[in-house]
Amino acid sequence: MAAPPTIFVDADACPVKEEVYRVARRTGCPVLVVANGTIRTPPDVTFVLVQEGADAADDWIAERVTAGDIVVTNDIPLASRALKAGGMALGATGKPFTHDMIGTALAQRAVMEHLRSFGEGGGGPKPFSAQDRSRFLQALDTAVQKAKRLKGQA
């Protein structure tokens, strides 16, 4: 039987790690929490400490994600790399990144970076809500079921 999908968590500033652990336990998926600083994880979760650097965690994940795996991240370039590898990418609010929208998201990110370089467009994301958490749980459940079918598990 094929291996279950792996859930990779881009852990720096990820507000839904506990939700990932809960879904992973219920569905039998291994979880790799990747960060460049120490994060406490439960004993049944693998923590990966990468070297310091802006994209070290992203690079580590992108080099290991395979078809049918799931990457939990708010980082648009990492999401794009996961999709190119055949994986799925899911934002913390439950919004899936797709091939149809990733190009637009990358372009919008570039525009916002350009505006910020001139001191415009600040403010950051809106606060994370209970509704975001609930939407994420549902989206991760859906992604795991789809990933299991892709990996021949369902």
Describe the protein in words:
The protein has helices at residues 17-27, 56-64, 76-84, 99-117, 130-150, and strands at 7-10, 31-35, 46-49, 70-72, 88-90, 96-97. With 154 residues, it is an alpha/beta fold. It has a single domain, classed as Rossmann fold, CATH 3.40.50. It has a 6-stranded mixed sheet, with helices on both faces. Helix 1 (17-27) runs parallel beside helix 5 and helix 3 (76-84) packs antiparallel against helix 4. The chain starts with 6 loop residues before the first strand and ends with a helix. The mean pLDDT is 87.
In short, what is this structure?
It contains five helices and six strands, in the order βαββαβαββαα. By secondary structure, it is of the alpha/beta class.
Examine the coordinates and then state which fold CATH places here, giving the name of the CATH topology.
Rossmann fold
Indicate the mean pLDDT: 87
Number of strands: 6
What is the alpha-carbon Rg in Å?
15 Å
Tell me roughly what share of residues is in helical segments: 40-55%
Task: Please outline the helices and strands.
Layout: E1 7-10, H1 17-27, E2 31-35, E3 46-49, H2 56-64, E4 70-72, H3 76-84, E5 88-90, E6 96-97, H4 99-117, H5 130-150
Parallel strand pairs: 1-2, 1-4, 2-3, 4-5
Antiparallel strand pairs: 5-6
Helix pairs in contact: 1-5, 3-4
Which descriptors apply to this entry?
alpha/beta, 154 residues, six-stranded mixed sheet, single chain, Rossmann fold
